[in-house]
Amino acid sequence: MSIATDRLNAIKGHLSGNHPKGLLAGEVAIITGSGQGIGKSCAELFAREGAHVVITDIDAGKADQVAADINAAGGKAIAIAGDVLDPAFPEALVQGTVKAFGKVNHIVNNAGFTFDGMLHKITDKQWDLMLAVHNTAPFRIVKAASPYLRKQDGENKCIINISSTSGLHGNIGQANYATAKAGTVGLTKTIAKEWGRFGVRCNTVAFGWIDTRLTRAKESGASIEVDGQKVALGIPQGAGNKKSTVNPFADIPLGRAGTTEDAAGGVLMLCTPFGAYITGHTLEITGGRGI
C-alpha cells in the first residue's frame, strides 16, 4: 500500500468517525515555546489528535504544568525545558525526544518574542537577538533532528516555522522582527526543496492579530528576560488612560482577534494527512486581514 493511500485512508477514517485515536496517532511532535500561548494550544490540540508531544519552554515550571495537564487528560507528553538560544539545547532537545519516544515526526518552531524599536533607534543587540531566536534557533533544531526526519521510512513528517504578517508586509517599529520573520519563509522553502525527497513537508504559518501577550497592551506589563535584560512585550496603547473609540478590528473581515486555538488549528491541519501535498507554503491566519 502506498504512502498516499495510507494517508487517504486515515482521512476517510477520521471523517467517518472510525479514527478514534486521532489524525496524528503515535506520531511525535516537538513544539517550542509551548509553556503558554499559541505553543500551549498547539501542544494540547496535537495531543488530542493522538500525538506524543514534547513541551519545551524556557520556563520549566510552565512546561512541566502543560505536560502534566496533557497527561492528566489522557494524552501523552513530556517536558524538556531549555533556552532555544543556547547552542547546545537543540541537540539535547532532539536526543531527549528520541530517548522518550524513539522518533521525531513534527517540529513546530514557535518560540519567539518581539523587541521593538524604530529603525533609527534599534541597537545591534535588538537586531541580532531577533535573528537568533527566529532564524538561528529553528535552523539548529531542524538540523539536530535531520538524522530522524531524513529517514526513508514512510512516516508522516512535517516542519512548521512560525512567521507573522510583519514578516510578509513589514511593520512600523519592527524592522528587526519583520526581517527575522521574513527569513523563516526562505528557510521553509529551502527545507521543502531539499527534504521533499525524504517525504518531509515544511510550511510556514504567518499569524495576524492573535490574542497573546505579544499583541496585548504593552502597558499591561508582560515581559521576558534575556541575558539579564527585561524586554517589554505588547503593543503600546499611547499616553493617557482614555479608551479608544476606534474599532481595532475594522480591517479584519471576521471582526475579531484570533484565539490561540484558532492559531493552533491551522498548524495542526498542515501536519495531518489533510496537508499531505502541501509543502513550501505560507499559510496566513489573519481572519482575512490584509486581503
TrEMBL record:
Enzyme Commission designation: 1.1.1.100
Entry keywords, A to Z: NADP
GO molecular function: 3-oxoacyl-[acyl-carrier-protein] reductase (NADPH) activity
InterPro entries: KR_dom, NAD(P)-bd_dom_sf, Sc_DH/Rdtase_CS, SDR, SDR_fam
Boundaries of every Ketoreductase domain copy: 27-198
Reactions that this protein is recorded to catalyse: a (3R)-hydroxyacyl-[ACP] + NADP(+) = a 3-oxoacyl-[ACP] + NADPH + H(+)
Gene3D superfamilies named among the record's database cross-references: NAD(P)-binding Rossmann-like Domain (3.40.50.720)
One biological process term in Gene Ontology: monocarboxylic acid metabolic process
Enzyme class: oxidoreductase
Cross-referenced SMART domains: PKS_KR
PANTHER family: 3-OXOACYL-(ACYL-CARRIER-PROTEIN) REDUCTASE (PTHR42879), 3-OXOACYL-[ACYL-CARRIER-PROTEIN] REDUCTASE FABG (PTHR42879:SF2)
Similarity section: Belongs to the short-chain dehydrogenases/reductases (SDR) family.
Record protein name field: 3-oxoacyl-[acyl-carrier-protein] reductase
Organism: Umbelopsis ramanniana AG
Lineage: Eukaryota, Fungi, Fungi incertae sedis, Mucoromycota, Mucoromycotina
